[in-house]
């Protein structure tokens, strides 16, 4: 018999997860306000600095499926606490660096591994374990934590960097990451069965132990099986373009691009923070819609609108934040990660209980796209003296992602062979 709670503990777990995700987003926002200061102090090219950001983005994505599997084996709480310590170490150690490889080690490797463990695969694990009812909505709210992180951290980090220097901003990130550790250790629970109850809206279930193969083999086997299916590649391809057009391009290069047109970096950071503000609303609404509208249709609409807006963006840059740019920021913010709730839902629909681990791999493709865009845009800026080619190319890719999403209507559903391990075609009309 399940225990009775006035407020289901799933909501408290969601709140703690939201706080961790806010922090992770803020930690990842740091490079965008430090590109220009690092270039000025060390003389490193934008391509070199962007390479460090790309390593961060790659590891952020590649860590996600393994982190999801590790959460199954060692528990959510332990993995997130270790991740926060890695972020703190990576950000704090940057104050001692003098060479570009040290930037890659700190920002790229340590912060990439830490934030990757608190990526959207973490969202999939939380919602899959703790929620049956309101699953789409909670996915949207937790995803919006990333937007909230940008909203909270970007303006603060920009002002700290301008007034106190980039080292103070880096140490601030390190300190905040450490502060979140005891909160996670105190309140984050691994599974509702620990409290004698089932997921919100579901029945009590004993936790299913991970297979003896281990977390890494579980993640790799899920990839091997999913990669044999058409839906996986359509989802991964679309999400790679999603990463290229958000974290990789706009998230990394919007501030230096605006600075090229005479806009103050604090003003540009404020605009990017507004993207986070509107993203909160857009992602929550997207989660609500995901519970009601076919996710493939939603993805098609989101990507097509994003593509059109990027094609217009080069004509909007100016020394001041005029109304047309604010309209772009509003639209792009609403669309930024609105793609996540329908993508998580489709991974669950196509891959069943293996959905969180498979989504981790789909998210890895998101970060491959982001890393490629971050480096490519930096190199284009170094060679051409402008970001215009990057904006136009990203707009065309987003329209392609819309077509890939609509092609999912021809995909077959799949079922897991065993909890968290592998997939096999469903022999039915489903």
From TrEMBL:
InterPro entries: MFS, MFS_dom, MFS_trans_sf, Proton-linked_MCT. It is found in: Cell membrane. Keywords: Membrane, Transmembrane, Transmembrane helix. It is a multi-pass membrane protein. This is MFS transporter. GO terms for molecular function: transmembrane transporter activity. Its main location: membrane. Residues 12-413 form the Major facilitator superfamily (MFS) profile domain. One of its GO terms (cellular component) is plasma membrane. The chain crosses the membrane at residues 42-67, 79-96, 102-125, 137-158, 164-186, 232-255, 267-289, 310-334, 389-410.
């Amino acid at each position: 018999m399940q225990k009775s709670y006035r407020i289901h503990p799933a909501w408290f777990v969601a709140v703690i997860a939201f706080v961790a995700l806010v922090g992770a987003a803020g930690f990842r926002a740091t490079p965008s306000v430090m590109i220009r200061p690092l270039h000025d102090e060390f003389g490193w090219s934008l391509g070199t600095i962007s390479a460090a950001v790309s390593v961060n983005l790659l590891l952020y994505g590649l860590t996600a499926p393994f982190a999801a599997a590790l959460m199954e084996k060692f528990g959510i709480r332990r993995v997130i606490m270790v991740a926060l310590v890695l972020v703190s170490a990576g950000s704090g150690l940057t104050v001692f660096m003098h060479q570009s490889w040290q930037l890659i080690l700190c920002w790229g490797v340590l912060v990439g591994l830490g934030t990757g463990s608190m990526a959207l695969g973490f969202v999939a694990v939380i919602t899959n374990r703790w929620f049956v009812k309101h699953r789409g909505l909670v996915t949207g709210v937790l995803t919006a934590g990333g937007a909230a992180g940008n909203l909270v951290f970007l303006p603060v980090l920009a002002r700290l960097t301008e007034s106190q220097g980039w080292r103070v901003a880096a140490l601030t990130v390190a300190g905040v990451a450490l502060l979140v550790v005891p909160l996670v250790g105190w309140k984050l629970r691994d599974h509702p069965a620990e409290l004698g109850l089932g997921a919100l809206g579901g029945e009590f279930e004993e936790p299913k132990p991970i297979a003896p193969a281990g977390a890494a083999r579980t993640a790799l086997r899920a990839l091997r099986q999913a990669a044999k299916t058409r839906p996986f590649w359509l989802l991964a391809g679309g999400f790679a373009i999603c990463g290229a057009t958000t974290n990789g391009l706009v998230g990394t290069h919007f501030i230096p691009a605006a600075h090229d047109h005479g806009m103050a970096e604090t003003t540009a950071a404020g605009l990017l923070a507004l993207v986070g503000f509107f993203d909160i609303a857009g992602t929550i609404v997207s989660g609500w819609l995901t519970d009601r509208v076919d996710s493939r249709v939603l993805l098609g609409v989101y990507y097509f609108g994003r593509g059109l807006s990027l094609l217009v963006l080069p004509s909007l840059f100016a020394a001041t934040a005029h109304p047309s740019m604010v309209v772009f920021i509003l639209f792009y913010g609403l669309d930024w990660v609105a793609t996540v709730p329908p993508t998580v839902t489709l991974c669950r629909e196509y891959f069943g209980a293996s959905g969180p681990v498979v989504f981790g791999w789909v998210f890895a493709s998101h970060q491959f796209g982001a890393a490629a865009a971050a480096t490519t845009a930096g190199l284009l800026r170094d060679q051409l003296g402008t970001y215009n080619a990057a904006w136009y190319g990203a707009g065309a890719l987003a329209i392609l992602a819309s077509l890939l999403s609509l092609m999912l209507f021809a995909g077959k559903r799949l079922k897991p062979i065993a909890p968290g391990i592998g997939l096999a075609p469903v022999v039915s009309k489903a």
